[in-house]
Amino acid sequence: MADRGASELSLPDHWPTHPDPILALNRMGSFDWDLDAGLFHMDARAHEIFDMRREEYDGRPESLAPRIPAAEAIRLDALVAQAIKDGSENYGVYFRMRLRDGRLRWTHTQGYIRRDDTGRPRRIIGIVRDATEELRDLADRREEAALDDARREQTNVVQLTTAALAHARTVQDVIDVLKDTHGLTHLGATSLVMGLVEAGRIRLIAEGPEGSFVPGTLVTGIDEPYPMSEVVRTLTPRFIESSDEFALGYPTLWPHITDLKITSAAYLPLIVQARPIGAVGLLYSDREGFTPEERNILVALGSSIAQSLQRAMFYEQEKDIAQGLQQAMLPRTIPSVPGADVAVRYRAATIGGSLGRDIGGDWYDLIPLPGGRVGAVIGDVQGHDTHAAAVMGQLRIVLKAYAAEGHTPATVMARASVFLHELDTDRFATCLYAEADLSTGVVQMVRAGHIDPLVRGTDGACRRISVPGGMPLGLSAEFRSLEYPVATLELDPGHTLLLCTDGLVEQPGADLDDGMRALTDLIAEGPDDVRKLADRLIEVAEERGGDDDVALLLLRRRGADTPRAGGRLQQHVAPGDPDALTGARHMIRAAVRAWGGRDRSDEIELVADELVTNALMHTEGAAIVTLRVLVGEGRRLRVEVEDSSSALPRRREAGVSGVSGRGLLLVDLLADAWGVEARGGGKCVWCEFEVSEGA
Questions:
Q1: Cβ distance 340 to 558 under 8 Å?
Q2: Total Cβ atoms within 10 A of residue 221
Q3: What one-character-per-residue DSSP string does 337-366 give?
Q4: All residues at 6 or more sequence positions from 49 whose CB lies less than 8 Å from its CB, including other chains
Q5: What is the distance between the alpha carbons of residues 632 and 613, in angstroms, rounded to a whole number?
Q6: Cα-Cα-Cα-Cα dihedral sign, residues 555, 560, 565, 568
Q7: What is the pLDDT of residues 152-165, one digit of tens each?
Q8: Taking a C-beta distance cutoff of 8 angstroms, is the pair 482, 494 a contact?
Q9: Taking the mean position of all CA atoms in its chain, how far away is CA 292?
Q10: Could you tell me if 192 and 179 are in contact, meaning their C-beta atoms sit under 8 angstroms apart?
Q11: Are strands 442-448 and 469-470 parallel, antiparallel or unpaired?
């Protein structure tokens, strides 16, 4: 052990000839080594340090050989020779010396090399001293520093683990944190076991390395002879400091874990509000015993684990309640729809750091309607909490009721908005309602602040359908804006209508249009089967994560083998609403072609358009257009136009320059039969057309 260059001995020219008293005060001995004569002179204190009597020493360095082990002598000689060779003025070294009784002790020497004018070394003057206490103190300081480092490392691990536990949301998250690199096993534990108290018993939720499970310990009683049962029963930590203590204290458990080579263990009760909720055990295979500081650290960490577990259990309980409420509010089953394949999916959002927030107001619904029609609903109530789910449930019920009563899509949406406004809640909702006749493929849609639907063709191409929209539900009534324009779409056989909430579209850092384009690309590349396509879309939503729910409804129209008897479509046309009139024409054209009247579609559309125009021109109210199939002796299509005027139409001849009067002439000329019926305070003008039996 050399310290040359670190502890220098500088001997000035006035160094005393007899420095013994001075050095003796510092418990040091001195020597004067005459290199020319080869004599090594020592004072009395140096003799004591070397444990050598004066008569045993003849002044030559070789006489010290009995006191200096051979290996140390070689090291000393090499160090002194190197100091002389490289021109050093001094050197210093620690070495072991053997005492008269055979014991070894540490000694320290420092030497000052005196040279002549040519640089040749002539003498070495120096000191020797007993370094046993010095090195013992140094070792103690190093050991204490090592312990401090270990304590700091353990404290750091505890702090990291506690910080990680603060983000744990579920019981499994807590277990994963403890088994992580920065978890409790990083403190040196070989194995981790954990149990929760349930109904007076302890259920094991985590156990150490694979293959270490002890049969019969999955569920144990609190009064059974196991360490976890003991700490739960007594609310006191149990520190087992040796394998013998473990075997003696727990003879039932010990034979099953001998292969783990356990040398010590720490079992900690997990206590919250003076009540045990479980226990955790750390098993070690490379240490025995625990210092007071280590015990305190582990007890403090046990408290953090208990708090995290309680939060996790509360979260899971609230999540179960929330998911139960969400499922109760959504349709339990989706009715089968003749002529269509339907798939629905729902994905709850995951919002980190909040309990009970994995629930929202997204919903879907499928509503069977008279005449073989079906209503499809997608919506989203503002918020992510149980209140949003409760509002959603009520809104879903009233929408279904209004639709089932036979109201037009625009009326269904307007009434739902009034209902939400009067519900005494600060929440609003977006919604899209589509009413489809699958025999004709005619789909009428209204939108209340919701995102547009998508349609996928038989070739996989997907496009966005632009639907004129009104205000979100609940706001339209507040701002007295209950107008919901109706858009009409023809859904061909094999085409798929997709309705979804914005959780499937919105992506961090991207606007809505970019999200819609990405969704259309994803749908185009997806499988043809609607259930597999729905699964694929939800998988992508899961991979992407996000803090919003996702509701999804897919409706694929099948091709009908034969025309369906009894088909019925209805359209409400308001005065001054050209879009409604266009939608009615669109509906009639598609229905006629689908119901076997393709050869007469132009005639039927012309007659229906004339009847609607007359109703709007000669009455003050709206017109209701109804198209139905009559099956009896042959197959007939019947067009009905209702208005609120009781005045019956009159057929008259138009003059040469007249611009009116030809309407009923056209009806009479083109229709196979027509007539007028009184309907309460109004009337219904109808006409019938014979069509072929084939679709």
A1: yes
A2: 12
A3: -TTEEEEEEEE----TT-TT-S--EEEEEE
A4: 29, 97, 107, 128, 129, 130
A5: 30
A6: positive
A7: 666 666 676 777 77
A8: no
A9: 39
A10: yes
A11: parallel
Distance CA 465, CA 460 (A): 15
Any idea how long the chain is?
Answer: 695
Contact 650, 665 (CB under 8 A): no
Q: Token pair 């209004």 is at which residue?
A: 402
Query: How far apart (Å, rounded) are the C-alpha atoms in residues 675 and 687?
Result: 6
Six token digits for residue 263: 């040398």
Whether residue 503 contacts residue 347, with contact meaning beta carbons closer than 8 Å, is answered with yes
**pTM (2 decimals)?**
0.53
Chain centroid to CA 41: how far?
81
Average pLDDT over residues 88-106: 89
Task: Give CA–CA dist 400/393, Å, rounded.
Answer: 11
Tokens standing for residue 581: 């009139």
Could you write out the three-class secondary structure of 600-661?
A: HHHHHHHHHHHHHHHHHHHCCCCEEEEEEEEEECEEEEEEEEEECCCCCCCCCCCCCCCCCC
Output the CA angle 464-470-474, nearest 5 degrees. Answer: 125
CA 579 distance to own-chain centroid: 46
- Write the secondary structure of 96-135 as one string of H (helix), E (strand) and C (coil): EEECCCCCEEEEEEEEEEEECCCCCEEEEEEEEEECHHHH
What digits encode the pLDDT tens for the residues 498-517?
999 988 887 766 778 888 89
CB 113, CB 86: distance < 8 Å: no
The structure tokens listed for 396 are 């879903």
Which three-class secondary structure string do you get for 250-291? CCCCHHHHHHHCCCEEEEEEEEECCEEEEEEEEEECCCCCCC
Q: How far is CA 495 from the centre of its chain?
A: 35
